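Reopening this ticket.

The earlier resolution said the output was attached, but the attachment link was broken on my side. Pasting everything inline this time so it's all in one place.
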Amino acid sequence: MKLNRTSTLQAVMGAMLGAGVASVQAADLEFYFPVGVNAPAVATIEALTNAWAAKNPQHTVKAVYAGNYEETTTKALTAAQAGDPPQVAVLLAIDIFTLVEEDVIVPISDIATSAEDKAWMSSFYPSFMKDATFEGKTYAIPFQRSTPVFYYNKDAFREAGLDPDSPPKSWAEMIEVGKKLVVKDANGNVTRWGTRIPTLGLGGAWLFGGLVVSKGDVLSTDTGTEARFDTPAAKASLDFLLQLAAEGVMQPGGISWGDTPKAFLERQTASMWTSTGNLAFVSENAEFDWGVGFLPGGDGPGAPIGGGNFYIFKGTTDEERAAALDFIKFMTSPENAAVWAIATGYVAPRPDAWEMPEMKAYVQRLPQALVALEQLPHAEREFAVFQRAKVTQYLVDAIESVLAGSAEPAAALAAAQKKADEVLKEYR
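Inline output:
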């Protein structure tokens, strides 16, 4: 079923004028935001931002689309180090350790101190608040949060004699079902793969974390000082990715994040693993019946939590921080959290957003949107440590080397672990 983008943006302007609490002192805000999925995110962000500005004419706000997550973090850090930070930004939730170490953000709990403020901070799903806190302080507020989910072509399932309402739940089922979904031409060349799991770069590392969670482990602890690469769960996860290729279910070698939704829509794969943030894109463009399920798991369901949070930067005035806080409250209000979820497919980060009439109508129209929310109890924090970019690259290199056939899982993970420990030992 396709969503109407025009009506969504009209809903943005109509549903949120009552949200938020106007600030008193005038301030000029610059707001950095990323886009990490195929969705009408920029237009929706601009509509939300303009609505807050219209409600608060004493302020100005400039929304700056700064690229993907990594590019946005780099630009925000560069601006902060140059003494000209944005007042507020949406950055990766897992960048909290980097931002704290660089001393560029203010704990939001130091600004939001009233009883009303504390009630507001407690209104978000606890799973999303796990990576918003450090050493007892809340540094961030959830906004565009997600888990990956299993998208599948129901028409392809029917053609293969499979139940279109029963996606695979385990790794074993995924291989069994995947073999039946593969299509080859007269020359034996694959024209449709059974599944597609991105394995390259940061997207691949994110999804790999879900494999590990489904085997009862995590890639990092809450301290930010421990990487867990050299574990039985991580090795089993790499072995599974190799098995998918060996069994002919998934194309061998590395698979990119960005090309995956397109491959699914063009029927080059019968299923895919990608963010719930791609729901709107798939809904608007799929020309076949499709469904969504939990990520198939090793020993049970499991997924990584991803996405971005709001941060307020240092080097800002008290008036700017107060306005930034008001802006964040407006953007994360139940009304606007619903608008953002409907426009993109991200998981609305607070329970009361799901009670909004617009959200209830959306879920009735697109029940696939509930899957990520229902999967949330089985999800764990995404890999997050100090020196995240450097340490994550060790994991990325290990995964990619194994899938390229140049290393064995055990040796690659042991080497990545050794490098990670060397970097993180100074933080323990």
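Reporter confirms the inline version is readable. The radius of gyration is 22 Å. Confidence is low (pLDDT under 50) at residues 1-13, 15-24.
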